[in-house]
Amino acid sequence: MHTIFIIFWATWDLAKRYIFPALYNIYRNEEEQNIDIIAVWRRNFDNNDFKNYIKEKTDGFIEHKKHFDDFLNSITYSKVEINEKEDYESLKKQIEKISKKDTQIIIYLSISPDHFIPFIDNSKILNLPKTSKVIFEKPFWKDLETAINLNNKITEVFLEEQIYRIDHYVWKESIQNVLAFRFANTIFEPIWNNKYINNIQITASEKLWVEDRWWYYDSSWALRDMVQNHLFQVLALVVMDPPSKLDAESISQEKLKVLHSIKIPTNDDLVFWQYIWYTEEKWVEKNSKTETFVAMKIEVSNWRFIWTPIYLKTWKKLDKRQTKIVIEFNEIPNILFKNFWHIEKNRIIIEVQPDESIAIHFNIKENWNSKEVQEVKSKFKKELSSKEAYQKLIEDVIIWDKTLFTTFEILKESWMIVNDLVNCKDNCPIIYKYNSWSKWPEIANALLENDNKKWYD
Ligand code: BG6
């Protein structure tokens, strides 16, 4: 089957870091190159301008460049202003020109959420066949109400099977491995509950800043950019019950049950920070209240996990890039060893990036002559996946596999959890300040110390 992949906005940071490298990998792995790409943005580029632009911008993100020039030849450029009807007319002509008998059209909307509705209105001009698919990047608008309106609008124009709501974290190899680790082993599932697990920590830290996406980020903030979607998705996979099948519907049902049982967090359950020079960044509002660091306590009020707090934290522009999940188990009843041995609590650590590994920390006696107990960190390190999340995600769209895509019910439930926070008005959390690229702010510790717990680095 021939695919026309249309990417709105093709000059964005996401496009150069992830989408074009993913498309290139798909292209070069195909025996017959059956994909054409239309790059869309509002500048007056011609095809060559865009090719040169994307060649320069993707430098450093593309490996094995042998076929890269051929790949560039599969790209044509189309200028589209989101509200400009004539531009959609010319896009339509461009699609017709390269369409074949068996073409499927995939439109990938990596655009700011306020462009979704204008796109949907104007997409009627494209007269897309019902085999076309539309991928919606997160965040799915900005709060519960706008998300509901958006979904109503989308479903007026597209059939549910044409709609792909994505969260690329779910396609990360180690996140998918959470399911295998939990449900393909008998030894972990019996202890996966509040009787044994003391707390769960999910961290997504970045060194990066948002580069040219300031105007999206300043109205989105870490809460909408990372927590409501990526971190909630990971949380749901870590704590959900076993699905009855590994299909889209069964997994979504279990995720939904988890999200539905989350207690709405209040200002006491979170800490917001902004790095010190944030408001000096080019284009950022001088009095911006955007948080670039969130730490949050989540309580899941279900039978399995009530009393096991889950702590989420995410930030930009600190000292390292790391995404990981730490499962800390309860203390042993320290009757046997309490006088002379310090015993670390058992932990399972799932590292998502930059490395991919699963580690189990447990205790053994150090050696014959000593009474000390030593913690052993047994680690299974995976070869780094040869496919990045976005490549797998796009391949799933091409073959109509919806197993990992997010349903609107899940998005709605996620918005409900943070809806008061994103609309806080007079009762917003205090925003503390932190130094860029420093170690993370001390004040984050209080959230856990109040519960007599500590963060794991
Ligand atoms: C995106 C966010 O969804 O995820 C970005 O909008 C963030 O702000 C990115 O940098 C992180 O993704 P990854 O795969 O690099 O961890």
Explain the layout of strands and helices.
Layout: E1 2-8, H1 13-29, E2 35-41, H2 47-57, H3 68-73, E3 75-79, H4 85-98, E4 103-109, H5 116-126, E5 133-136, H6 144-157, E6 163-165, H7 173-183, E7 197-205, H8 214-239, H9 248-260, E8 270-275, E9 293-298, E10 310-315, E11 322-329, E12 347-353, E13 357-365, E14 373-381, H10 389-398, H11 408-422, E15 431-434, H12 444-449
Parallel strand pairs: 1-2, 1-4, 2-3, 4-5, 5-6, 7-10, 8-15
Antiparallel strand pairs: 7-11, 8-9, 9-10, 11-12, 12-13, 13-14
Short structural summary:
Helix content is 34%, strand content 21%. It is an alpha/beta fold and 457 residues long. The protein has a nine-stranded mixed β-sheet with strand order 14-13-12-11-7-10-9-8-15. A six-stranded parallel β-sheet has the order 3-2-1-4-5-6.
Structure description:
The structure is a single chain. This protein is of the alpha/beta class. The chain folds into two domains: 3-137, 3-Layer(aba) Sandwich (Rossmann fold), CATH 3.40.50; 170-383 and 406-449, Dihydrodipicolinate Reductase, domain 2 (2-Layer Sandwich), CATH 3.30.360. It is built from twelve helices and 15 strands. It has helices at 13-29, 47-57, 68-73, 85-98, 116-126, 144-157, 173-183, 214-239, 248-260, 389-398, 408-422, 444-449; strands at residues 2-8, 35-41, 75-79, 103-109, 133-136, 163-165, 197-205, 270-275, 293-298, 310-315, 322-329, 347-353, 357-365, 373-381, 431-434. The strands form two sheets. A nine-stranded mixed beta sheet has the order 14-13-12-11-7-10-9-8-15. A six-stranded parallel beta sheet has the order 3-2-1-4-5-6. Helix 5 links the parallel strand 4 (103-109) and strand 5 (133-136). It is globular and about 80 Å long. The relative contact order is 0.13. It binds 6-O-phosphono-beta-D-glucopyranose. The site of 6-O-phosphono-beta-D-glucopyranose (BG6) has 5 residues, from loops. 6-O-phosphono-beta-D-glucopyranose (BG6) is lined by residues 206, 208, 210, 225, 323.
